[in-house]
Fold this protein.
Amino acid sequence: MAEDTNSFDISEAETQAGAEIPIDGGASEGSLEIGPYRLLQQIGEGGMGEVWLAEQDKPRRRVALKVIRPGMDTRQVIARFEAERQALALMDHPCIAKVFDAGETQRGRPYFVMEYVKGDSITEYCDKNRLSTEERLKLLIDVCDGVEHAHHKAVIHRDLKPSNILVTIQKDRPVPKIIDFGVAKATHQNLTERTLHTQLGQLIGTLEYMSPEQAELTGVDVDTRTDVYSLGVILYQLLAGSLPFESKVLRTAGWDEMRRIIREQDPVRPSTRVSSAGETASAVARSRRAEPSSLVRELRGDLDWIVMKALEKDRTRRYGSPNELAADLARHLKHEPISARPASTAYRAGRFIRRHRVGVAVAALVALLVVTFATATAFQARRIALERDRANQQAAVATQVSDFLIELFETSDPEESQGENVTAREILDRGAERIEQELTDQPEVQARLMSSIGSVYQAVGLFDDSERLLRRAIELQREHLGPEHPDTLESM
């Protein structure tokens, strides 16, 4: 493996000015100053350089001063050191640590002075402050913007990881700062006039955050999408609380197996990692102000798709730039369809509803009221129509009954009976007979007349005839009008 990367962590507690500094021929050159900078404390050390917290009088400020370590001033190391300095000098972005100055010590070792970032790594900051998933995504979107800026300056970082992204507070809001471009690669220009070679068989970057193309060891065909992969690993860690491939697994594997895992093995989805985390899932969820079950639901879906697209082994299937990754994260936060996920009609409809919850709820309520009103109106209209039809039918029945009775009793008129005397019993018997024979196709009229004639039979004391007609009327009314109809109940 190659030497460790040149990252440094300047988040450790600083000491007061005048604190004891080792006088060992190191960065201090046997004194407390390098140029106009007074050294206070060594706060970081990488493969090729030392980082010191220093103080400058004009302007009055504290800075981070990076200088090549004693004995490391070989041509190759100096070339890489100058490349980092030049890469940082090209940048002008609020999420990238600024370079203020550069020079050489009295012994000719180069140094440069940059913005002192007092803060924690992005993962430590998020967990320490219990940032929600949404707050973590917003922070990573800012990081993506900074990395995109570096790419526009034709610089690939190649070693993005949490310790190289520090979070500081500026104007009461967290701001990520990308540091350590020690293994950065220029895509269209030379960062230094000195020759800078990357040896074959040398890993550039950090194992856990290394892209599959970096693990190929050629170093020739690495482009900006290698930083996208590293951002995907950081996103995975921010969401699930663990790495796609744990350090113990990678660092205890053999050389070939380690590279095979990075190049070929797909990690589990973040939601699956949390759901299978067992007892640690509670701690992970708690640091995100959530319950394990709700965190799994939050990650399942869009965020799983986004992370896995950023971690694609085939970089042609990966996000093409940090901006594309940031855009999908922003879409997710706004409940818009993301590009990483196949866009079915149901999915787009669901995103639309979540994005416009109030409007959709109001529209649904209005639609429900309209449907309810229309249904009630239709029901009322139907009820009125039925009542009208029933009234018309009752009127027709009454008319038929009236006509029948008038015609029946006309037979008692001497002119109609040709002088014969007709008794009431005969009139009733003739009527009952005609009702039975002539009105079979009009059961309601038939039942009404039977009930009427039966009542007359009863009134004149002919109870057997009355009962026979009334029972027949009840049968017809039950069959055609129902047992609860007023006519049926009256006959009963």
Summary: The longest helix spans residues 357-409. The chain has 19 helices and eleven strands.
